[in-house]
Design brief:
The complex is a heterodimer of chains A (348) and B (120). Helix content of chain A is 41%, strand content 15%. Chain A has 348 residues and is α+β, with helices and mostly antiparallel strands. Chain B has helices at residues 8-23, 29-67, 73-85, 93-111. Chain B has one domain (8-112). The chains are: A alpha+beta (348), B mainly alpha (120). The interface between A and B is medium-sized, with 29 and 35 residues.
Chain lengths: 348, 120
């Protein structure tokens, strides 16, 4: 339930500033000032802000707030199947970032949470990390030239930290084994009533090879890709955006990292446009995740590619069904063709 | 379609040029982004009007060969998807893949021709 209301006489930033002043007074002491409040992103699933807290003792703390959108719409369903973009709530997301950090994965510090109230949706705070999150810049800018060759290994290693978190320590989350996850996307695809021979062959290919998926089951980040990491000159500084976290086969995270859509044209570097598969697997092995076989990796690379294709179609149909009419979603719908092409190159 | 000019292709072109020459330079932020997306969407329509018929004819020919039956593009694509799912195409994978790859390449040629070459 979302009962937070935006006061029409205040801007979103003004109202939030009041909320933050009250909230941070209880953490850092009365008189803490909120400075430089700017919105970083606003979307259907999140509302992210950056600001500095100027504490009474003169110390500044750079913070990020991620909360549910104030005008949040219900999660879109396809004939009863939740689309899953809002797989975990903000409290769970913040808790998972804490757990990942405690387990040794580079992740921002989550110092405290923001409870829902009449004037704000629920969220969590992180200490702001310095670095770059835009995938294209990570691949292109000179500042990251020495970081890039290290990233795939570091990412593999980081994944073992959170993939290895004890099941009993995790908050309650949704979980899907490989067969069920395939069925999840199959059902969404069918709900479009739009025959798609290319993706159909992808489903057929995966269905025949389910045995290659392996049987591991652990915390998955769910959207582990170039674009959801923060990189500084030394390499991986943090794993971000845990809203798609769920229980499942953790190799899915590694396969998703290899999907061509986030290589931004640097196709010779299979991992995020910056690294090689061997580096990713070496880092994973060194972190104690075991040596993932090439066939299993290929299965999850194909799976991730098909999943991205279905997600593009979801956005296209979100527009067509009238849930959110926007030329952006309409155009993304046609980008499914790029993913179809990528997918068919991977299949035999 | 009327033969009067400007014809449909030329009208779409006019709107795209209006957006890129007069709107795009005067907006910023989210609106600038959506304007670029809109320009690209109209470019897809223009390329489809120029090359779509030829691609459709070729695709239809391939589908008839593959499925050994007659029908229109919509019906045969539905039939192909059904047959793949039922495993009925498993013995013709090479021809199937060649057809699917050609079809996907054509779709990209319309939707985003730079995809296959662009970097960064």
């Amino acid at each position: 339930m979302n009962s937070a209301v935006q006061d029409p006489n205040l801007s979103a930033a003004e109202q939030l500033s009041d909320v933050l002043t009250a909230r941070l007074a209880s953490e850092y002491g009365a008189g803490t000032k909120i400075e430089g409040l700017v919105r970083l992103s606003a979307g259907a699933s999140r509302d992210t802000w950056s600001f500095d807290a100027h504490k009474p003792d003169g110390v500044r703390q750079a913070l990020i707030l991620k909360r549910d959108p104030m005008d949040r719409q219900a999660d879109k369903s396809f004939e009863g199947v939740p689309e899953g973009r809002l797989a975990v709530d903000r409290r769970t997301e913040g808790r998972l970032i804490q757990l990942a950090g405690e387990a040794g994965a580079p992740a921002p510090t989550v110092p405290f949470f923001l409870d829902a109230g009449g004037r704000t949706t629920p969220g969590f705070f992180t200490h702001r990390l310095e670095g770059e999150t835009l995938g294209r810049r990570i691949l292109r800018e000179e500042a990251y030239a020495r970081a890039r060759p290290k990233l795939a290994y570091q990412i593999g290693h980081a994944a073992t930290r959170f993939h290895g978190i004890d099941y009993d320590d995790l908050p309650k989350m949704r979980g899907l084994g490989a067969a069920d996850e395939l069925l999840h996307y199959r059902t969404i695809m069918d709900s479009f009533h739009q025959p798609h021979a290319g993706f159909e062959y992808g489903f057929r290919w995966l269905q025949e090879r389910l045995a290659l998926a392996g049987s591991r089951y652990a915390l998955c980040h769910g959207d582990f890709r170039n674009g959801n990491i923060i990189v500084d000159e030394a390499g991986l500084a943090g794993v971000l955006d845990w809203e798609g976290a769920h229980l499942g086969n953790p190799s899915a995270d590694l396969g998703w990292m290899c999907v061509r859509a986030w290589r931004y044209g640097y196709h010779d570097k299979m991992v995020g446009g910056f690294g090689d598969l061997e580096q990713l697997l070496d880092g994973y092995d060194a972190g104690g995740g075991g040596r993932i076989g090439l066939e299993e990796m290929h299965f999850w690379h194909v799976f991730g590619t098909l999943r991205w294709g279905v997600l593009c179609m979801i956005l296209g149909f979100t527009h067509l069904d009238g849930d959110q009419r926007t030329v952006e979603y309409a155009a993304v719908g046609r980008r499914a063709a790029e993913t179809e092409f990528d997918l068919l190159l991977l299949l035999d | 379609m009327p033969t009067d000019r400007p014809n449909a292709v030329e009208l779409v072109e006019a709107v795209r040029e209006f957006l890129s020459d007069h709107v795009a330079p005067n907006v910023e932020g989210q609106l600038a982004f959506h304007t670029r997306v809109a320009i690209n969407a109209l470019a897809i329509v223009e390329r489809t009007m120029a090359q779509g018929d030829e691609m459709d004819a070729a695709e239809l020919g391939r589908l008839k060969d593959l499925l050994k039956q007659d029908g229109d593009l919509q019906a045969l694509n539905g039939e192909l998807a059904r047959a793949i799912r039922a495993g009925e195409m498993d013995d013709r994978r090479e021809t199937l893949l060649a057809h699917l790859r050609q079809t996907a390449e054509d779709k990209i040629a319309l939707a985003n021709p730079r995809y296959l070459t662009k970097r960064g």
